[in-house]
Amino acid sequence: MSDGQTGKMANEAEQVAMGSPEAGAQASLWSRAVVTGDWLSWDRIGFACLCSAIGFTLGLLWMLVLPNSFGAPNGTLLMDYLSFWLAGGQALNGTPEVAYSPAAFSALQQQVTGSDTVFGFFYPPTFQMLQMSFALLPYKIAFAAFIGITTGLLCLACRLIAGNWLLAACLILIPACANNAFHGQNAALTAALYGFFLVGIERRQMVWAGVALGLLTIKPQLGILIPLALIASFNWRTFLSASVTTLVFAALSVAVLGFGVWQAFWVQAPVASAMMELGGVEWVKMISVYGAGRVLGLGHLPAMMFQTVFALAAAACVWRVWRRTEAMAVRAPVLVGGTLLVTPFALSYDLTLIIIPCAFLIREGLRNGFLPYEKIALFIVIALSASTSPFAIWLGLPIAPVLPVMLVWLGLRRLQSVATGAERSRLDGAVAGSL
User: Fold this and answer.
1) pLDDT, the chain, mean
2) From CA 416, how far away is CA 45, in angstroms rounded?
3) Angle at 395 between CA 341 and CA 385, to 5 degrees
4) Phi, psi of 286 (to 5 degrees)
5) pTM (predicted TM-score)
6) Pairwise CA distance, residues 90 & 339, whole Å
7) At CA 89, angle to CA 285 and CA 172, rounded to 5?
8) Number of C-alpha atoms within 13 angstroms, CB side, residue 275?
9) What is the pLDDT of residues 290-341, one digit of tens each?
């Protein structure tokens, strides 16, 4: 072997040992883009939020003011909120039970819109009672008022979490929230109540946390794991407060609407399950593990089996986390992610709920630093929060359950970080004491 060949091999070995410039550049790019997410700077985020706000506003104006493809032959806007408004109107007319009769409620909608497109109303009478005040307004004004008020409440909840109005305003502009607004759905309201509940727990205002939880019963499937979390954390005051609020809320609806409407609600309840099983609610628009299984071709029972497995795993994670730590950057992602995994009946706009754990995680990251891969994971969860249905429809990929799984993962990583920090503090204290 010649001296030149020997030198070349030595140089190559030295580059491998020390790291070539190309390899270093690639490692640096990977670190900035994925590990640390440094490219997610405030100027880029602010610009994206500004564009989102403009698009959000123009989209709502186009939908509510201008003729568009979502209008019925007579011009009535065919969106989910129509069922809320009509249910409130039936309560005002003294016939609230109509909202819980699929045939009668469908006929009413066809009479109002002149269209065969109808929307079910599967919410308890407590939510119907809340819609009575909006039903006093013309339909499109009621639509705008409901979305404006509930999104404002969500912004307030984010402000209480983040301590900053600007950050709160950015959070309510994520795609999932816009998706909820265009549907005229109630996910901003339920997310706000979830936020008030968790803020109350964090600030040890247990009674007020229970009141928010009691009001959250307007969508009971979102509260399945909360009693488990409260038991794990020995939070009996919130448990009692939530129970009392639920009973008072229900009693008030009986006083306003009558007892018969609750009977009609319970008679109609199996219809929602049948709609889910038979595809009356399109599986591609669902975000649950069950919905993903049906999109992939599984039957009802196998899909429910997968749903059960994920639900049990989520429950175990919630028990562990709420038992071991009070850090809300750990508790909130695991509870909310678990909530979206445990219920088989959840639709795309329900991903608005992810705003709350994202607010806690972002607050923690800004205060104490983001963990590796945390910023990019949050970006993926937020960016895809309104894109799960298109992926399922166009590509046959039901990616929606991946997002709550990522939230649970983010929470568990924070639990490990909190545990490591606590152990380090304990050791430092022991060393200081020995000195």
Assistant:
1) 88
2) 28
3) 40
4) -90, 155
5) 0.88
6) 32
7) 45
8) 16
9) 999 999 999 999 999 999 999 999 999 999 999 999 999 999 999 999 999 9
CB 171 within 8 Å of CB 346: no
Q: Which of 12-16, 45-49, 134-138, 316-320 has the lowest mean pLDDT?
A: 12-16
If one compares 127 and 120, the residue with the highest pLDDT of the two is 127
Q: And the tokens for 367?
A: 């205060």
Angle between helices 187-202 and 139-162 (to 10 degrees): 20
Report how far apart, in Å, the C-alpha atoms of 163 and of each of 34, 198, 209, 362, 366 are: 27, 14, 18, 11, 12
At residue 261 the predicted structure's pLDDT band, cuts being 50, 70 and 90, is very high
| 8 Å CB contact between 352 and 182 | no
The answer to whether the CB of 398 falls within 8 A of the CB of 392 is yes
| Other beta carbons within 10 Å of 147 | 23
Alpha helices in 93-205 (DSSP H): 102-113, 125-130, 132-135, 139-162, 165-171, 175-183, 187-202
Q: Amino acid identity, residue 225?
A: L
